[in-house]
Amino acid sequence: xxxxxxxxxxxxxxxxxxxxxxxxxxxxxxxxxxxxxxxxxxxxxxxxxxxxxxxxxxxxxxxxxxxxxxxxxxxxxxxxxxxxxxxxxxxxxxxxxxxxxxxxxxxxxxxxxxxxxxxxxxxxxxxxxxxxxxxxxxxxxxxxxxxxxxxxxxxxxxxxxxxxxxxxxxxxxxxxxxxxxxxxxxxxxxxxxxxxxxxxxxxxxxxxxxxxxxxxxxxxxxxxxxxxxxxxxxxxxxxxxxxxxxxxxxxxxxxxxxxxxxxxxxxxxxxxxxxxxxxxxxxxx
Length: 285
Fold this sequence. Notes:
Blueprint: H1 3-11, H2 18-26, H3 31-43, H4 47-54, H5 57-63, E1 71-77, E2 80-85, E3 96-101, H6 112-118, E4 124-129, H7 148-159, E5 164-170, H8 174-184, E6 189-192, H9 199-204, E7 227-232, H10 236-249, E8 252-256, H11 264-270, H12 274-281
Helix pairs in contact: 3-4
């Protein structure tokens, strides 16, 4: 979505829908784009919406930070966005690509601007994938193929220009991140609050047959030290899921003691500790 497109939508949106519209912005806007929006909205005589954004937690967290991270947004498809770091201090070599498999809401359980602000490594770009079908990316993304294999091939084509590719998924996107890493042999993959697929329920609900969720199965080689399953320490379901997936694929389980909810990254961001956490789990310095 372009900024002008969003402003045009905002002009047609009643104040009662501002919260839903804000959620839409949080799925695509870079930190710089987000902090510029209140001024642009005010220029369109949308002062109430401008005040709504400027008074929110995301806006305050960005403007109160030591610096606003500079990312260029490239929409590669309706549900695929590449955020390229434009920091002048960025090294010319050793670039890394973080492939984010979003949760069912189209985010990594927090606004993408907040996530980008929290990445400390200047050489890291972020490829954000969203699944409008909410079906573990088994039907790909618009513009990136109609199945998971096509999606994986498209991501791999982008990844060849990087020294390292890291797959990270939250909630519904957790296991797709693991699946991508196993298929592409990209190495590091992180599932945060990853949830298993429930095909029986989907078929019972009349959704029809669904593709098999290979290659996550009991036949796998269990020596996968680069796989990491993260869960909130006090969330019993996520804890059970993480340990079950680790037994199936290999890899480590990491509980987060300071979080009790399913939305680990979002809660860490609210607590102003996400940057430190990402430094600990991402193999990028």
